[in-house]
Amino acid sequence: MADKEIVKGGHYLIAETSCADVFTPEDFTDEHRQMGDTVAQFIENEIIPNTDEIEKQQFEHTYSGMEKCGELGMLMMEATEEDGGLDLDLVSAMLTNEKVSHGGSFAATYTAHTGIGTLPLIYYGNADQKERYLGKLMSGEWIGAYCLTEPGSGSDALGAQASAVLSEDGKHYILNGTKQFITNGGIAGLYTIFAKIDREHFTGFLVERDTEGLIVGPEEKKLGIKGSSTTQIILDNCKVPVENLLGEKGKGHKIAFNVLNIGRLKLGASTLGGSKKALKEGIKYANERKQFNTPISRFGAIGEKIADLTAHIFASESVVYRAAGIIDDRLARVEKTSANYYDEYLVGIEEYAVECAIPKVFCSDVLARVVDEVVQIHGGYGFVQDYPAERFYRDERINRIFEGTNEINRLIIPGMILRKAMKGEMPIQAEAMKAFEALMTPGFDEIDDTVLFGREKALVKNLKTLFLILAGAGVRKFMDKLANEQEILIASANLAIQIYALESTVLRAEKIHAGLSDRMQEVLTSAVKIFAFDAAEAAATAAKKGAFFVEEGDNLAMILSGVRRFTKYDASGLLGAKKTLAAAACEGEKYIFN
């Protein structure tokens, strides 16, 4: 792995990637698969039977489940061996999150604990802090919570008003303020709380539950994930020992943002797992439910839904593990014996802020589509609590808000790319000029159908050209003010997301195609065609919107002609592809690609 060329963050937009260089689920090691099976069995045997009780916030089941997670090593995967952890790769954490997601509200507790609840201590804690707290968090004796959001500051995290003042004797920081929507708030033993020292220096603190002045608010009455704990945390002259300051004074933003990057990537895995679980229930119901003496899965209207959802989940899976693999390749270069190990580790994570934001947005959007269609497949039964489709639908909604809203994450994508361009780390301007030359050159765009997935590869290439055209046009018109044009940035992000998803799908399909049976090759090709058609349509919509936002007159007409040209995709045989994929999915009665 150390000899492998490292892919730079965001460079997928300007570089060509070989299928041999992407990590896919088919690359899981035996250890990965054994771990995934163990986690899946634990959720099936220990958590799902207690779903009703957990949904009623009978937290004894949550505490018991977390302690069992500790016994299985599920709470210590990302800590180094020196810190008492297992020091596993990011792919392992992603796979675990995917499997845990089947546990409903328990998954929210678990993922918050292992992500934002524990990672700040792992990444930024000193030896004394880890000695006191990390063992309790990794065993499940204590549950962790992360307190950043406030009633008046959500996306604007640095606008937090919670304050910290050093006591007269210099032994404590006195914290005051209110934290809002804190996952695990009512059950945590340790809180990572952000406050401004002297109302200026944004800083993290480790705060124990029984700390004087820390007040846990009542449980919020939520739309979904009802079995998880969500409360306010009120700081009323909360006395925090000075030795519990986390990291450096005034550097809390580093803790907040780096932890959120990994949280976003992990949320992609969690929503992927949710999509698979919901699809399985949808197909099972469609096979059992009969109308006109025929299972409804055999009707084209239902079959098309199942085919579309399967194709989009395949894309989600491709996105999640490609991103995790890229980051693992980079982190493998960090010398574990280095005194600055975590500093270098976090620099590596920050490099891939774009690749962390994309799975969060794309996979949560796919889950939203999946659960909506699964309710539709169930008809009236999907609207009642006797069937899991109803809970899937409610539980899904938070994922587009968690870990930064999808709108904020969309803004991160072009924002990071522009920042890299300004630093000279990405030659966006030069590549945009080439793209404009391609736009001005009459296109014959011949496609070699003898090349495996040749049409889809051509589409990926063309969409990258289109992104660069729009990026160049936006920079020329707005210059440094482009960062303030959120409508344009979101349109460009939607295009960038579709490019990453489509390319990930095609590269994975190309990589695994030869190892499949003839039938599964046909099924795989069908999934790629279905997703490519949808991605081309979504990219065209985003690009047209962006063109109308940026240009007018002759320039607009020229770019719109480019949109038509570069989003063109011959999806001949699309209906047959949908029938093929639907039949295979219904026969397997689950997501069929793993």
Descriptive overview:
The protein has 19 helices and ten strands. A hairpin with a 3-residue loop joins strand 4 and strand 5 (201-208). It is 56% helix and 10% strand. The model has no long low-confidence stretch (mean pLDDT 96). The protein has helices spanning 30-47, 51-55, 60-71, 90-100, 105-114, 119-124, 127-139, 252-288, 300-331, 341-351, 353-378, 388-396, 406-422, 428-440, 454-478, 486-512, 518-550, 553-566, 574-588, and strands at 144-147, 163-166, 172-183, 190-197, 201-208, 214-216, 230-241, 245-246, 290-291, 294-295. The protein is an alpha+beta fold and 594 residues long. Helix 9 (300-331) packs across helix 19 (574-588) and helix 11 (353-378) packs antiparallel against helix 12. It starts with 29 loop residues before the first helix and ends in a 6-residue tail after the last helix. The protein has four domains: 12-142, Acyl-CoA dehydrogenase/oxidase, N-terminal domain (Butyryl-Coa Dehydrogenase, subunit A, domain 1); 146-246, Butyryl-CoA Dehydrogenase, subunit A, domain 2 (Beta Barrel); 252-406, Butyryl-CoA Dehydrogenase, subunit A, domain 3, CATH 1.20.140; 427-588, Butyryl-CoA Dehydrogenase, subunit A, domain 3, CATH 1.20.140. The radius of gyration is 24 Å and the shape is globular. The strands form two sheets. Strands 1, 2, 3, 4, 5, 6, 7 and 8 form an eight-stranded mixed sheet that branches. Residues 250-413 form the Acyl-CoA dehydrogenase/oxidase C-terminal domain. Belongs to the acyl-CoA dehydrogenase family.
